[in-house]
Amino acid sequence: MKTLTTTALLGLTLLLGGALAAPGGNITVSYKDDVTTLDPAVGYDYQNWPMEKMVFDALLDYKPGSTTLTPRLAAKMPDVSKDGKTYTFTLRKGVKFQNGRVMTADDVKYTLERVLNPKTKSPGQSFYTGIAGAQAFVDGKAKAVSGITVLAPDKLRITLDAPNAAFLNIMAMNFAFIVPKEAVASAGEDFGHKPVGTGPFTLKSWVNGQQLVFERNPNYFMPNLPQLASVTVKVGLDPSVAYLSLQRGEIDLLGDGIPPAQFLQVTRDPKLKASVVSKTSVNTTYLSLNTGIKPLNDVRVRQAINMAIDKTKILRIINGRGEIAKGVLPPLMPGYDKTEAGYAYDPVKAKALLAAAGLKSGFDTTLYTTSTDPNPRIAQSIQQDLAQIGVRVQLKSLAQSSVIDAAGTPKTAAMVWSGGLAWTQDYPDPSDFYWPILSCKSAVQGGWNWPFICDKALDARADKADRMVAPAQQAARLKEYASIFAAMNKQAAWVPVFHEVRYTMKSERLVGSVDDLLDPTHFINYERLSVK
Predict the structure, then answer these.
(1) Among 94, 264, 394, 517, which is most buried by a count of CB atoms within 10 Å?
(2) Are 11 and 515 a contacting pair, CB within 8 Å?
(3) Nearest to residue 382, comparing CAs of 412, 410, 345?
(4) Any transmembrane segments, and where (predicted)?
(5) Are residues 229 and 308 in the same domain?
(6) What span, in angstroms and rounded, lies between the C-alpha atoms of 318 and 79?
């Protein structure tokens, strides 16, 4: 774990470095895997999201380095009705898409309906089904969402079926990044490679498997943003190769972080350590267990797997860059329960549970993992642990996009190691660790409920908790969510393994605060970076 003193000093150093920065210049960022899409309705991982944020904006955003919402495309925070169900947004005037057209409230309505449309196959659909009339639209019973009303070119009203304490956070997500209908229609299914938004950068070029180049939007509506003239994102670079490229001055930021093989060398060398940036992430890295595939549909089998995995050994593989997880929620998330014990490492008890489930001789299964180090090595460690209780695991080490596709397809991936795809907060509320990844709503094709678990009783409890919108109810709401996650932990659809402390390296010329380089929501705040 990093210390506050180290982080504070590093942040101060970087911020002071900003005094030497000037507008303009280019930076280069590296990733091993190619980018799948820049369509904000579809792209949903730590690699896509910050690049989408370069091209698009939402009505709301967060103040840098904080959890405080602030207007972005909205001219002000919305007016909210007394019953907490109706939000009226007023838009900034004169904001233009990168194709030159002025953005209007019709674009907001189109954007939200596009995310809800099943044809879009958006993993964010379930976030917005609480809007009045959204479910009828999803089910094909209505041609429009009745709860989204355009009042004027610059005014929009959104009505919910029920109050939702997290709704404004949801409106700041990438799925709510505003897109122009004509650009989507023109590009068709290729909109993810030909994105058009209102954002601080435009996509200049994209050579699949090699690089993406973003250029400053000269007509951007936010003053003094962005600082950089351009950003080049190189893909297909092994993290160790990228690390050497940074040493040669060819890379400015390691998108995949410091490679494990070089971690001790970097952190022990005073000169190299000066370029390190670290921050505790609000995330949980886990092994998902598909409840729709036998014998993982038996809770005893899932509990046995939880008890068979040595999490301490996995932490050693990642050089201790994390904290052992005992449940779904990370420690920095509101509603985290310090008393949650989780499952202790106990292979003997695990074997007994398998025997009770009629699997004394074990069983065969598969485990999917991304091919970026150290994930294949962690998968091998899990494979070895499970072999000790008679579970014979075949490993499938694939590109990130292939793992996501398999994991989001019912009855395809029995087990998925989430390393590199760990669940990280979309917004600072415990509902974000339930609805998109563990609810019945998210147990759909293309979703991130990889265990495909569906507990309607827990859904009802979470829904009731989200209706607790009054400030005086917030303590009780968080207590209820802690109870919901305790119940989910007993079902053992995940093996929560660790909460990551993220480390990366930057070049000496790159200027940006810790929160800009390791932002808890956007991962990298490209618009606020600059060069000396």
Answers:
(1) 517
(2) yes
(3) 345
(4) none
(5) no
(6) 47
Of the candidates 182, 144, 126, 155, the residue with the CA atom closest to the CA atom of residue 59:
155
Q: What average pLDDT is seen over the chain?
A: 93
Please write the tens of the pLDDT for every residue from 170-212: 999 999 999 999 999 999 999 999 999 999 999 999 999 999 9
Residues 306-354: tens digit of each pLDDT: 999 999 999 999 999 999 999 999 998 989 999 999 999 999 999 999 9
Give the count of beta carbons closer than 10 Å to the beta carbon of residue 224: 9
Q: Decide if 500 contacts 322 (C-beta within 8 A).
A: yes
pLDDT average, residue stretch 233-249 = 95
Strand partners for 215: 202, 230
Residue 28 has pLDDT above 50, yes or no: yes
Report residue 115's pLDDT band, with 50, 70 and 90 as the boundaries.
Answer: very high
Half-sphere exposure of 398 (CA within 13 A, CB side): 19
pLDDT category at 22 given cuts 50, 70, 90 is low
- Same domain membership, residue 513 and residue 440: no
Range of the domain at 353: 283-501
* Three state DSSP letters for 127-187: HHCCECCHHHHHCCCCCCCCCEEEEECCEEEEEECCCCCCHHHHCCCHHHCCCCHHHHHHH
For the chain, what is the domain count?
3
Beta-strand runs (E) in 25-75:
26-30, 60-62, 69-71
- Whether the Cβ atoms of residue 262 and residue 315 lie closer than 8 Å to each other: no
175 and 308 both lie in a single domain: no
| Residue found under tokens 């009855």 | 411
Q: What predicted TM-score, i.e. pTM, was given to this entire model? A: 0.81
The residue among 145, 149, 125, 147 whose CA lies nearest residue 136 is 145
What letter does residue 34 receive in the DSSP assignment?
P
Hey, what are 110's tokens?
Answer: 């189109």
Give domain status of residue 127, yes or no: yes
Residue 156 lies in a domain: yes
Residue with the two structure tokens 């299964």 = 365
In a domain, 395, yes or no: yes
Q: Which amino acid is located at 263 in the chain?
A: F
39 in the same domain as 69: no
Within-domain flag for 400: yes
> Which tens digit of pLDDT belongs to each residue from 431-455?
999 999 999 989 999 889 999 999 9
